[in-house]
Amino acid sequence: MVGYVLISIFTMILRHNGLYVVVLSLPFIFIVLRKHWKKLLIMFMSILVIYEAYNVVIFKIFKVEKGAVGEMLSVPIQQIVRTVKDNYEDIDEETIEKLNKYFTVENVWKDYNPILSDPVKFNFNNEYFSENKSEFISIWLKLFVKYPKD
Fold this sequence. Notes:
Layout: H1 2-14, H2 18-32, H3 37-61, H4 69-72, H5 74-87, H6 93-99, H7 108-111, H8 118-122, H9 126-131, H10 133-146
Helix pairs in contact: 1-2, 1-3
């Protein structure tokens, strides 16, 4: 169990999505080792406490700032930009106007790179997204449903 604790902590520290991997593994480990559920519960609580303490201490000591929201949204941004690029004539004006609040739609042809999301991600309006998350998600879902292959 000590090995699993260490691996879990390092996974969460070294990967931004490591926390999700560890948390998603919980149900499976509880099912397989259900006889030891009390020890497992203590182990997982310890992992989360150590991880959170590490983050708080390290972030304060080194004055680490959180990354922009656009970093987290690389894939959805890239998907929207490609869909707009490939289907611009078919997308209604209202959607284009909404998208222009997140990034400049006219720059899609210049910024889009199918193997690299950085150019479009860097021009993403993080502040507007922070105030309008549900709108962005609804646009993404609308385009996904209408253009599932793009």
